[in-house]
Structure formats: structure tokens, C-alpha cells
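Quick note —
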Amino acid sequence: MNNKLYGNLIFELSREGRRGYSLPKNRFGDYEIPQLIQRKKEPELPECDELTVVRHYTNLSGNNFGVDNGFYPLGSCTMKYNPCIDEEVAALPAFQNLHPLQPADSVRGAEAVCTLLKQSLCELTGMKAFTLRPFAGAHGELVGLMIIRAYHESRGDERRLKVIVPDSAHGTNPASAAVCGLEVVEVKSLDDGTIDTTHLRTLVEEQGEEIAAMMMTNPNTLGLFEKRIPEIAEMIHGCGGLLYYDGANFNPMLGVCRPGDMGFDVMHLNLHKTFSTPHGGGGP
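Predicted structure written out below.
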């Protein structure tokens, strides 16, 4: 095999007059396309034989990463390897072919699965309730921050528009806060990569009446376990704020400790990371 063949663009492999497939004879007649929307010249499409096309795109697919043929290197975002059978279950017609507008009586099984899932997530995290509405991690963050903002507004405390975010935080944390109309206040990290509680205390003392929440990931984005969470929770709750847990790195905590027991008030989980939902398949 000529490896050079696979390094080219499909247009570079094109040779005038080559054909890979001939369409059957037209049995449906002709339709005149209005002049206004017709092309000025013929489209420049590659001309390749079938074998060249198959080899080319097979080679391109080999450049995609697959968890069954390589190592997933990103340590801060704890993606797990989903067993293929779980993907098959998620693709069962009883799930895949559901429609949002079909009668409620016809989706009782799916509702039961969702109810059990929410109850299980509450038990694992120490939370009182879960929603399955958000479709991604950043979406979950935004929903969580909207809940926090609504909580403060319901108490008539509309001054709280600041969110404390560690300088080691994942980029979606400050982005979600900004989209929610909140101001980001950065707290520094110590040399060991964990939150500088002395700097945090200064921020709380200076801006406490304006702090809506603090966002944390644990283990943090550097992969380090934040050991001062009780102290941090006491500071944030003491000034009237809430503590938000980014569940992106929940894997090492699962079954060992619960964010709710540590003092976190709101959190999201990436089900495709800690559990076994296909990436992009939705989840709280």
C-alpha cells in the first residue's frame, strides 16, 4: 500500500474522468431549476474511483481517537471508558425513538428510569433533588448559577452578583458566571495548587455582602484534592453566599464522600464522565 496516498486531500487524489459509482437511469423526469438559484458554473467535485475513496476515508477515520484503541490523556477532565454494551442500551428503540410530544402514558418506562436515576444521584451526592434538563456540563453550570441567582432574588438580596472562582478553575466556570450576568472574582492558589484560604478570607471580608456563590471543582483542575473545604464552606456560608460544586472530576469521590455532606449547595454532574452516558447524550 502507498501510504502517501492517504496523506493527500480527496481533491488531490482526483483524476479527470474517473468514476466510483454510476447513478441509475432517471425514472422521475426533469424539473427546471429557476435561473435565479442556478449555479454560474459546475461544482468542482473530486473525480475518484471507488477504491481510492474507500481507502482515503478509512484512513481519515483511523486518525480519530477511540477509547478502544488508545489512551485518553486529559487528566483534569475525568472521562471514563463506557462499555460498548451501554452504548447499545442507550440506542434501544424504546429510548432512541421517543418523541417529546408523544402521550405521557406511552413513556412510563422511560419516566421510571429517569426517576430512579435522579434518586440515585441524590443518594450519591448528598443533594435533595436533581434535574435531568441540562444537556452538558456548561449547561448544567449555567442552570446551577441561575438557581443560585434566583435563590438570592427570592430573598430580596439582589446585591449578590459576584462569583468567586479559583485561578485554577476550568474555563467554563467564569464563562457560565458571565453568561448568567454575574461578576467573576478570582481567588489565588497556593504553591501546592490548592485554594489560598487567606486570600479567600480577604475577599469575603471586603465583598461578602455582594458574593452570590463560590465555584469549586474537587479534585481541582490540577487533579489535587482540596482539603480545606469545611473552612471554605464556613466562610462562604458565613457571608450569605452558596457553594457550587463542578462535578467534572467526581470520579475519585464517587462512593467515598459526598459534596452535599461537605457543605456544597448546588452542583452539576457530567454523566458521560463519571457514569455511562454517551458523550453528548444529555444529563444533569
